[in-house]
Amino acid sequence: MGGTAGISDREFEVLKTDYEMAREDERTFATIQAAVAGIVVALLAALATVLTQTCQLNDRAKNCTEAPILFLASAPAIPFAALALLQLLGLVATVRSYYLRAVEAELRRAAAVPLRELTGAGISSPSYAALIAEASTMRRGRSRYRILSFLILFITLLVFSGLTAFVAVSLGGRTGVVMAVAYGWAFMLLVADVASATVGGRSTFLHLARQLAARQGTGLLGGSPPRGPRRRGLVSYLVLPRPEDWVKWLLVPLAFTIVVLARDLTPQWERLLLMVLLVEYLVYAARYQVNDIRGYAEDATHPEAAARMRLPHPADPAARRLVVVCSALVAALRLITALGIAAAAGVTRSLLAATAVIAVAGVLYEYLRAVEARPGGTQRAAAIGLWALVGTGYALRYAVGAHAAGLLVGDSLVWTGALYAYGLGTMFVLLTWVLEASAYCRAPHPLRWYASPALRAKPHLLLLLRYVRGVTLIPGPPPTGAPAGSCGEVPVLRGRCALGAPWNLAYWATVAAAAPLALRLAGLAPDSAAGTWVLAASAPAAALLPLAGGTTARTLLLAAGTVLPAFGVALSADPKAALFTALPFAVCGGLYTSFRQQSYRDLKHFLPDLAAAARQAAVRAFRVLVGRATWDDLTR
């Protein structure tokens, strides 16, 4: 069989046929894209015209029409569907462009035919797709083409988002909030997909090509091959930046519930959901995105980078730039969405106050991190400043929950609870940080730890290890040839620690704040019999907890500090008061005891380990239910 440039005639025909099919597909898609783009423009114009003639959105219009609320709320979905279709077509066009260029390159190797009419241009062989890419791609295209393309995308998305926000703000109330949430999620997904198909087109194509390569050995109906471990994708991160911080999502609802029960208030569940959405999912998530952008390089080399699930860090520098830009844009979009929802729901002042606290704390945090990274004598002071700062977010979350329940900021239950939450949050973060510091160390000997250079660049972590007794930190890498295990799997806090350890000080501060909070929650006076019993029984037992040298002793002290005072209050007052007196001590003591017996690996893999245990329990239950014979038949 004949051939050209090292490939057979049959291979050449396969390449040529594939190329012709792709070019025909390109022509068809170009026609469809132009038609859909025209439809999008027409829909946006028609929608704007129709909506401005409704009484709900323009009561000044003559002969306005009273339109159903459901129609107005769902009207932006029509142009959004057209925009989404246009984006899907654009993604296919991006993949086709890269594939066509690859096939063209193979064809040129097989039959390099110079274009005599373009001799002066220096083009050695036909390459239509590559020539078009030089003009029209967002990575290598002409600068004016890229600017105009960006303006088209920006104006289209701005008009749609502005129109949707106008409808949501005009309708207000529940409808406006639901619109902001639903369209906000959809809009973020659309923006992320647009970015992945334009400036991130190369990375998207490579990812899809690798997926195809993994599946090519599987038949059409053979199912997908088993997936290996995957790192987190960009879209998943943008939807929920830090799933590992799930426990923080509980603080506002817990504060709300406790205040409602303690004061016998009518629960305003809609207000609670609104504040959780605004403060936790939008504002705080944007703050975390900024933090992850600033620590982008550090997070990629973290010993537990996969378990932390921070901002994705691909190998390609262009892909990394795309990741950072997309995260910054979505963070800004989160803040804009939060302001829009707050304006529609009438809680703008509350949101601005919370955002100001978050912003100030965030700026101080990033400043102190920058100061501690500089060599000199300011590192320890900056680290101590960070230790003192990290509890502010927990105090804010308690105040937000109490405010959502209906309390004013000056209420005694608000500020006593905020003080308690500040101490609790500080203790929680410091315990997490000392465990995290252990993950940066290697230990060929149980008592001789070698700290990595990355840890020495983080004094707020490194300094905490000095309060762990029985551990000697040694500079430099472990000796060559000596097996060195990760200290992140060692429960470093299980034994005794220095009494002056920062987490112990934060614990005692929390215990001191827990006493007045418990009395106010229970409605007891400090000089009453029940109040005196609480202070006499709970405070000493709780305060002795850091002095205990083992898990059993800590558990007994925790039980003494919660059960005894609750039992005494139940006898002299009522069961509800007994619950509230035990709650503050139980939370801080239980959290402290739990951390003292965990490793950093246990902490970061808690949810996956819990899910695995749940799956195993479900499998065992199903096996018992169906019987041994049926189970063996199903699993053979």
Strand order of the largest sheet: 5-4-3-6
How much helical structure, as a percent, in the residues?
over 70%
Structural class: mainly alpha
User: Could you give the distance between the termini?
Assistant: 49 Å
Rg, nearest Å: 31 Å
Amount of beta strand: under 5%
* Overall mean pLDDT: 79
How many strand segments?
6
Largest sheet: 4 strands, mixed
Give the low-confidence spans.
none
The number of helical runs is 26
Bulk shape: globular
Quickly list its features.
6 strands; 70% helix; globular
Give a short summary of the structure.
This protein is mainly α and about 625 residues long. The chain contains 26 helices and six strands.
Molecular structure report:
The chain is mainly α. Among the domains are: 3-114 and 124-209, no CATH class; 607-636, no CATH class. It is built from 26 helices and 6 strands. It has a 4-stranded mixed beta sheet. The protein is globular. The protein starts with a strand and ends with a helix.
Set down the secondary structure blueprint.
Elements: E1 3-4, E2 7-8, H1 9-51, H2 69-74, H3 77-110, H4 128-136, H5 143-171, H6 173-197, H7 201-215, H8 234-239, H9 251-263, H10 269-294, H11 296-300, H12 305-308, H13 317-345, H14 348-372, H15 379-389, H16 392-405, H17 412-439, E3 441-445, E4 448-451, H18 453-456, H19 459-465, E5 472-474, E6 485-486, H20 502-522, H21 529-543, H22 551-572, H23 575-596, H24 600-604, H25 606-626, H26 628-635
